[in-house]
Amino acid sequence: MKKVLIDRGVRQLLAWYDRDRRPLPWRQQVNIYHTWICEVMSQQTTLAVVLPKFAQFIQQLPTVDDLANCDEEILHQLWAGLGYYARARNLKKGAEFIVNRLNGRFPQSYREWLQIPGCGDYTAAAIASICLNEKVPCIDGNVIRVVSRLLALQDVWSTAGRSRIQDYLTQVIPSDRPGDFNQAMMELGATICRKTKPRCDICPLQMQCLAYANNCIEICPPKKPRRVLVDTELFVLIFWHRETDTFAIVERTDGFLAKTRGFPLTIAHQLSKLDRWQPLQLPGKFTHAIAHHRITGRICVIQLNSNDIDISMRQHLALSKTLHWMNRLDLSAKLSTALDRKAFQLFQNYTYSDSICEQLALNL
DNA sequence: CAAGCGTGGGA
DNA sequence: TTCCCAAGCTT
User: Fold this and answer.
1) Are residues A109 and A170 in the same domain?
2) How far is the CA of A104 from the C1' of C10 (A)?
3) A300-312 pLDDT, tens digit each
4) Which residue, A275, A59, A46, is CA-closest to A142?
5) A182 contact to strand C (CB, 7 A limit)
């Protein structure tokens, strides 16, 4: 009896999806490379941000072979605005694995996709169900919310609650259209069964929804506890060779934005160690957020007479060996992180002002 | 298992 | 303005 209702709900869901789904670029036709990229790109971000980036990424790196062989700096630039740059680097590692170890043949199951760097339960399930018709449920934030409401389940963030959701989905996911079912559940969560102001009035699963019946949608699922915000003061060091108007870009090896190129970063506490290079702190500041850090960024300009940076300075700042001197125009195009771009923007505002230029000149 | 990791957009 | 958070993965 129960199963009949479930099957009916699944058919209603799929019918709704067939009729109302958004025409996303990666839904035009099934392409496992495109699905892989868009799923990783979509982790912890929003569709509005992903859409233009996805088009650009696929245009620049149309095949897994292109991705495996691309320059990492280009990769980071393609990823600019998406955050979590490790995802991009993992994509490249995955592409290298597929090209070099699997002879360019994509993994052919959920289990195999789990072996690919950056592919966890969610991403492997998405790819396997959508592209390989494997009957494995996707569990993301949207799906958790939908199931929480369908079953009037409040315990969804614990391990037990999570397996409860997984068990339920494993029961109801249809063998004939597992990928469409997964996408329909996520789509429902994104457009109808939203966190705020859910559209229960037009929901295809209204009749199956326990939270709707019990009038407890507001508390399903309960809010996830958030980490408290931490105020962090960060100094952005701009090594400037004034005669050539070039800037030193480094590879940051740890701390914020590790493994990305940009300006060296340091904290107030450590700044005094740089006194012998006569850093000039510019007036003004910018704000930025990284995870739970609420960052206040300040700029320190250090004018170098040679194109070299001291070993001790390098170690102190957690920098790799490679130093890239770039001119002002190139820099605007090549900075990949938002923090670096905000800092450079602030720097440019001040160095276009005569009074600051005089101060910097005096500092030589 | 909890902590760490970026960003842009919407409320 | 400020806060919150969105299709998670790794360690």
Assistant:
1) yes
2) 25
3) 999 876 655 666 6
4) A46
5) no
